[in-house]
Amino acid sequence: MFIWLPGLAGGDRPLGCIDNGDFDGFSSRLMWRERGELKGYLYYPEKESRCGDYFKFDITLNK
C-alpha cells in the first residue's frame, strides 16, 4: 500500500505505461510507502522503465 502525494508535470503530462517517443513532457510524484519510506515516481522522455522510473530518498518519515 502507498499514498500518492502531490506532484509536478509539464509538456503533455505523460501518465500510465507509455513508450518513450510517444510523449514530450514529464510528470513526477512522491509516494509514502510502508514503514515511512519516501519514493519518487518519474516519467520523462529517457525513462528506463515503460511504466516510469522510481527513485528512493535517503529519508524515512515517521508519524
Automatic annotation (TrEMBL):
Any matching Pfam family: Polysacc_lyase_14
InterPro entries noted in UniProt: Polysacc_lyase_14
Polysaccharide lyase domain: residues covered: 5-51
Protein name (record): Polysaccharide lyase 14 domain-containing protein
